[in-house]
Design brief:
This is Acetyltransferase. It holds the Pfam family PglD_N. InterPro entries: AcTrfase_PglD-like, Hexapep_transf_CS, PglD_N, Trans_hexapeptide_repeat, Trimer_LpxA-like_sf. The strands form 4 sheets. Strands 6-9-12-15-18-21-23-24 form an 8-stranded mixed beta sheet, covered by helices on one side. 14% of the residues lie in helices and 31% in strands. The chain is globular. A hairpin with a 2-residue loop joins strand 3 and strand 4. It is α/β, with parallel strands linked by helices. Bound molecules: coenzyme A (COA). Coenzyme A (COA) binds at residues 73, 133, 151-152, 169-170, 185, 187-190, 201, 203-204, 210-211.
Length: 214
């Protein structure tokens, strides 16, 4: 039986998530929701943007059993929309590409996107509202907090802990056993050799603080 889904977020990441869902034979995507009213009524990659959060009750009535995934790259915005959807009783589910690997011993929350080529290894724990983006590697025993985004090609060695709302930039490498603090940002291509303080932005090889995050 097919699963009906709607994607919240009709931007670039939304189109990536649509590709993921279209590669799953049991999912039918009915359209997008988006907070940007200028998109309402438009067609994105062949599907309508049916409205914003106010459209949720109609969708729940029109498509019994429907669920949503939030496709917004920004951690804070993704989490806020997910919380609004939960308040409105919209079930949230995951978008996991069939060519991602998720270890059977990993524990994965809800509203999690795992893009093509991503690898989540043994005993990793992934919170809610997380993006493990294209080709990212989350090694064994990692603990990834809620609303984290691991960008494409980033690599986290074993036993790394990533605090809520943190962002690990594209192609960054984090060596094992480190803590990346809440809301920290690791710059593109950084090599992280030491713990990163909460709300700190680090970049470079080896990674050094460049400013505080907001
Ligand atoms: C780290 C980052 C967040 C900093 O952004 P920012 O605060 O706007 O920083 P700025 O661009 O003003 O740069 C500040 C300084 O840090 C340096 N810097 C910025 N990003 C850097 C990086 N990734 N590696 C090395 N140095 C970097 C800049 O060259 C600049 O140095 P300068 O003061 O000597 O000129 C951003 O550059 C970055 O790497 N973002 C990741 C993007 C990404 O992964 N996107 C994927 C989306 S799926």
């Amino acid at each position: 039986m097919s699963r009906l889904m709607v994607i919240y977020g009709a931007g670039g990441h939304g189109r990536v998530v649509l590709d993921i869902l279209r590669s799953l034979s049991d999912v039918v995507v009915v359209g997008f929701l988006d907070s940007d009213k200028s998109l309402h009524g438009s067609i994105v990659d062949g599907l309508p943007v049916v409205g914003g959060i106010d459209q949720v009750p109609t969708l729940l009535l029109e498509y019994p059993g429907i669920s949503a995934v939030v496709a917004i790259g920004d951690n804070q915005a993704r989490r806020e929309v997910a919380e609004e959807l939960r308040k409105r009783h919209m079930p949230l589910t995951n978008a996991i590409h069939p060519r991602a690997f998720v270890s059977p011993s990993a524990v994965v929350g809800t509203n999690v996107t795992v893009a093509a080529g991503a690898i989540i290894c043994a005993h990793a724990k992934i919170g809610d509202d997380v993006i493990i983006n294209t080709g990212a590697i989350v090694e064994h025993d990692n603990c990834i907090g809620n609303a984290v985004h691991i960008a494409p090609g980033a690599k986290l060695a074993g036993r790394v802990t990533v605090g809520e709302y943190a962002f690990i930039g594209i192609g960054a490498t984090v060596v094992g056993n480190l803590n990346i603090g809440r809301s920290a940002v690791v710059g593109a291509g950084a090599v992280v050799l030491h713990d990163v303080e909460p709300f700190s932005v680090v970049a470079g090889i080896p990674a050094k603080p460049i400013r505080k995050s907001s």
